[in-house]
Amino acid sequence: MAVTKAKGLIETAIGILALTATVLVLPLPLYEIASGRARDGSMVLMVAGLTLLLCGLVFVCRGLLKRSRDLRTPRTYDSWEPTTSDQDRPENPYQMPSAASQLQAGGPPG
């Protein structure tokens, strides 16, 4: 199994989740405070929603910046990482596979 480097993926995912939570948390206290009939918990929810909004934006920006930095580096043979291990690759790719590997791949029996 190949191990891939997901640069910026985790930060972007956390940011998207925080922004989604902001959409769920922020509108009600914002409406209550703007209309002037805010209850006790509205201010707490407002602060929590604004915190989620700020953290979500920061995480998305950090993740996208890491990703774009990775895409700007040129890919050379020195920086190339194989997707499969070299032991799994046949030395001659045009050679017929063995009978055992044909059965594993669902080839014709016999």
Could you please describe the fold and organization of this structure?
By secondary structure, the protein is mainly α. Helices cover 59% and strands 0% of the residues. It is built from 4 helices and no strands. Helix 1 runs antiparallel to helix 3 and helix 2 crosses helix 3 (40-72). It is elongated. The mean pLDDT is 77.
List the helices and strands and how they pair.
Elements: H1 9-25, H2 27-35, H3 40-72, H4 99-104
Helix pairs in contact: 1-3, 2-3
Which keywords apply here?
59% helix, elongated
CA-atom Rg in angstroms: 26 Å
State the order of secondary-structure elements, H for helix, E for strand: HHHH
User: Which geometry do the CA atoms define?
Assistant: elongated
Coarse structural class: mainly alpha
The pLDDT mean sits at 77
Summary of the model, kept short:
This protein is mainly alpha-helical. The chain contains four helices and no strands. The model has no long low-confidence stretch (mean pLDDT 77).
